[in-house]
Amino acid sequence: MANIEKKHIIDSNKLSGEQYFTSILQETYSNGLLCDSDMEKIQLQCIQLLAYKCERYSGGESSSIRVEAAESIMKSNLYTIGLYLKSLPDVDFAVNEIKKSSVSEMYQKGRELINVRLRSAKHIYNLVRKNKMVTPNYSYNSTINEGIESFFKVYDPDYEAHETPASIDYQLCNTVTNLIGIEFILKYLENLFLENEFCRDFAAEDIHHLLYGYDKGYKDLLINIFEQVLTAALGCSLANRSVVKLDISAEEVQHLHYELSEYDDCSLSLRLRKAAGKVLEELNADSLPLRRYIEKSLSKIITNILHAVRMNTLDKTFISKALPDLKPRIRFLSGTKMHDEDYRKLIDELLICRHSSDKLVLIKEKVKSFGDLEDLLLDAHLSEEETALVFDILGDVEIAVLVRRHPFKTDIQALDLSEGEMALRQYLKNYIDRLPKCKQEEIFEKADRLIYE
Amino acid sequence: MSFEIIGISSSLIEKQAITEIERCNEFTAEFGLALSPSDAAELVETRNIALKSNGRIEFGSGAIQKIIREFCDSPYISMHNYAETIHELTEMFYYYKNETLDLMSDDDLIKFMKNSFDGKCQGSLELLSGRELANMARNLRYGYPPDYSEDPMPDEEDEDGEY
Known about the structure:
The complex is a heterodimer.
Chain A lengths: L1 H6 L12 H11 L5 H22 L6 E3 H20 L4 H10 L2 H28 L7 H17 L26 H19 L4 H11 L10 H14 L11 H12 L3 H18 L5 H24 L2 H4 L12 E3 L7 H13 L3 H11 L3 H10 L4 H10 L2 H10 L13 H16 L2 H12 L1 E3 L1
Helix pairs in contact in A: 3-4, 4-6, 6-7, 6-8, 8-10, 10-12, 12-13, 18-20, 19-21
Chain B lengths: L10 H13 L1 H4 L8 H17 L2 E3 L4 H9 L10 H18 L6 H13 L6 H17 L22
Helix pairs in contact in B: 1-3, 3-5, 4-5, 4-6, 5-6, 5-7, 6-7
């Protein structure tokens, strides 16, 4: 045994994080640390453990179970043992433990460890919910609020310890690989906590403006917020701007491009690492785990920046903030239309009415909704003068709605339109053209802000 | 090293299963039934094939012992059809474990098989498998009780009271 510990024959890099126990057995066997009889003994013990677990699984009511269920239980058992072996100081300890202990003993220890990990994961999940960013990004919010929560409801450490029943859409800057089950969730939550910790040094509004500059529809994108924020912070640091504000202009990015193009890859990388140090200094980020996480993330971000510098696309990497359109919107409700019968009567009356003034009186008296008025303008065969008189009694918002719904088109573009529709659009255009310039602008501006139902 | 479940076929486990089946002769003797060592080995083989074809796995002697214990007092089983019937019942058992989506325990399924075999099926394995067990499995899958029937059973006697 002492020899095994000294030799360090097993290369831990060859071991799989997901199937640790199986891979360690394979390595041990191929290195001659376990003989055939040892392997057979372990195999038999694994089957005995499986038989016991299968009986528990069926509640003692069924002597046989489906192969898929048995395979899943076997994977779960092996995963649990692997989890325990991973917790030992090094691979040599793990090999020693395999030789010394029975499979069911190792399983029991692994099972206890899963409970400990599960409690830790729940604790970190609560911390993540507390230090969660305020952002409209859907994948971020849904992953934290529902996706991970479902894991704690569904996770079955007895029979499916190796499964990760969580709906995780939000991608981290440092993707969790080579881990499954509770280990995956724990690592994911740890990383997410650190990302949140970093982003909380910035105002939610600044992050929103930065991501808005990245893409107006960022709330629906599968992006990593931390990566964008850290990249922007690096850009600010390089441009000697305040890191906290995440504000770097297009001109400064252009200037940075000229400056950074002069560097070779190695010195550019060094320059970026120095800038990262400055960022951490400015943010007073002295937490060691966070520093390590940022260090780990830097290689990916530096590669992106290097690539951008070489491809002259630095403006796509260092994003300039954009302010969302904060103008108030106008919600327009057209009201309830009159009954069809009443509408037909009104149109008949308007068609036989000879004087424009009478028509106008009728319209003012009978029409109570914008929808009816719109129909009437198409159906009542009003002349241009009469239509203009109707427009006169409307407010700016109603005219703006008409402009939005009946935009003027040239004869060729309007080929598919009805005669009434073409006339209305033409009359409306003429009416708008006759208005003073400032009034026109006012109407068009209102039309832009309009939300009608 | 392989942990493929389907490949598990330990001769030790099989030997243990054969011994357990042979031990059943002790209590089936009073009904004039007995299995030879080769019958027991064949039964284990049938079980293995049935398990494999139905995608299931079993540890120990499993259900065969329970089937023998339940069916040994059936009036429709005698020494000349004993081994053959147990073979068929074993195949049926594993098939309907799947068909019932494991919703029924081994004991309940075997009891249902015995009651139907001795009752409605009057010893017919075809009726047991093709009608009674099939109906029962369908009922369970649709959430009805195992003996649920949409049509009331037609009276077996005709109007004259004759069979």
